[in-house]
Amino acid sequence: MQLKQRRIELEGVSNFRDLGGYKTADGKSIKWGRFFRSDTLAALTDADMETICALGVNAAVDLRYSTERADEPSRFLGHNQVEVLELGLEKSPYDRTVDDYKLLPDAAEIARGYMTENYRNYPFFYAKGYATLMRRLGAGDRMIVHCTAGKDRAGTGAALTLSALGVPRETVFEDYLLTNQYWDWAGREKPGMDAATVASIFSAHEEYLNAAFSAIESRCGTVERYFEEILGLNDADLDALRTACLD
């Protein structure tokens, strides 16, 4: 396997990606082999774990709910190299899920609204996880950020970290949308769910990530102020992140 490739081929997960190589607005590049994003790490094979460890990864930020973590435990729990940082919410902040609407005639539209609202909240609900990710990267750790799909909670965290590193917004969105090429949701859709509803839930949509950035700018004015006011990152933290991750 060549290190300098975007998608890392694994047997048990489909959306494991190296975020190296992206260019910043001032002409620098993100180092390869420092920062990875993924779908759930529950289905990793032993060979997959060896591949990830060979990349030097030493920590994984797990943004799943406690029920998701219990149902599909990370293969790295208790591992001697990769520390699992369980920084997801204990439970969903919503009383209902998209599954409750799957048989309604306007289910796809409801699902898109549900997903958009989630994205508006991700930057704030998962602030601790995103701040920890950036601080640990700044300390020199080689990190994975993941949720179940590697699309929504982890996708927002990856987008914000790329933004903190100075990657242009256009490139941030290009990376986010790569999930549509790589992630195999392997039957996670519920019986009776129509194709439009499946697409609303299981695909990355530009409007979703736009909602996250719009919420940040509405509340904080700029992404830079979000890093300071919500994530608690100061100039030294951001300088450390960039020093550790950029060439």
Order of helices and strands: EEHEHEHHEHHHHHHH
- What would you say the CATH architecture is? Alpha-Beta Complex
Helix content: 40-55%
Number of helices: 11
* Total count of domains: 1
**What would you give as the CATH superfamily?**
Protein tyrosine phosphatase superfamily
CATH class: Alpha Beta
Helix-and-strand structural type: alpha/beta
Radius of gyration (CA) equals 17 Å
Number of strands: 5
- Residue ranges: pLDDT <50 for 5 or more in a row? none
Q: Please indicate the percent range of residues in DSSP E strands (runs of 2 or more).
A: 5-15%
Distance between the termini: 22 Å
Largest sheet: 5 strands, mixed
Structure described in brief:
The protein is of the alpha/beta class and 247 residues long. 45% of the residues lie in helices and 7% in strands.
What does this structure look like?
The protein is α/β, with parallel strands linked by helices and about 250 residues long. The protein has a single domain (about 15-245), classed as Protein tyrosine phosphatase superfamily (Protein-Tyrosine Phosphatase, Chain A, Alpha-Beta Complex), CATH 3.90.190. It contains eleven helices and five strands. The protein has helices at about 45-55, 65-70, 105-125, 125-140, 155-165, 170-175, 180, 195-200, 205-220, 225-230, 235-245; strands at about 15-20, 35-40, 60, 85, 145. A five-stranded mixed beta sheet has the order 1-2-5-3-4. Helix 3 (about 105-125) crosses helix 9 (about 205-220). The longest helix has 19 residues, at about 105-125. It is globular and about 50 Å long. The mean pLDDT is about 95.
